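During the reporting period the student researcher (J.K.) took over the structure-prediction task from the postdoctoral fellow and processed the backlog of single-chain submissions. One of the processed entries is reproduced below for the supervisory committee.
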Amino acid sequence: MSQQNAFENRPTPTIEDYLAIMFIMERDGEKIIARRLAESLDVSSPTVTVTLKRMERDGWVEIEGHKNIQLTEEGCEAARSVIRRHMLTEWMLARMFKVPWSEVHNEAHAIEHTISNDIEDKMRQNFNDPQVCPHGNPLPGYEYVTAAWKSLVHFQAGDKVTIHRIHETAEDDTKLMQFLESKGILPGTQAVIREILPFNQTLTLDIGEHEVVLGFPAAQFIYVEKISNYTTITPRRGPKATPEK
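J.K. obtained the following structure tokens:
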């Protein structure tokens, strides 16, 4: 298939944006909900309704009743394609152009729809077929790599952890991403959960010599792995409690 035909057979950029978000919802075991799509894409509910009807007509989704929305196989493959292009573009921006970690997501979003299949293959080869994006999220087909990592809110005070991933949902919040970058909350960083305070919904991390306080809404997007050969420290005064989901 020629490059021109490949582009012609792709969904429009708008539809690709919908498909990517829907794929992530299904991957995470969530139901695809029109309201969530409207919030994620910053569009009105009527706009989502009209777009979903068009996607159903074109064979990207199946809609049973009014609420049961599922990607078709063609929709899944198109979603995998745009997510791969997006994540590979993030690596290109980070490695070749030194774009800050907190900014590569938004910059890649402006480019991903224009990447040809040939360029996608070249980027994949050049970056040694990465399994995760710069934020630690899995490229399609590599979900098993991240399966064992759990949200920070499921650990206990005193645990030492390695930060591996910032969930895709958080990537759209530029201010949050800039905050995390400024505090060193990046994939590969080790941290100690110093304190958990459910009554005010905060969690405190020790990262090196620095202390970082996170609200539960932000902490839930940070996925980590416990360092098993570490002796648990004595946390500060306060309840040893794991936040509720």
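The committee noted the following: Confidence is low (pLDDT under 50) at residues 231-245.
J.K. will present the remaining backlog at the next meeting.
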